[in-house]
Amino acid sequence: MKLYETGIILSSQLEESQLTQQTEQIQALITDNGGKIVDVDRWGMRKLAYEIKKMQQGYYVFFRYEAEGTVPQKLEKAFQVNESVLRFLTTIPEKVEESRKPSDEASEATSY
Question: pTM here?
Answer without folding.
Answer: 0.80
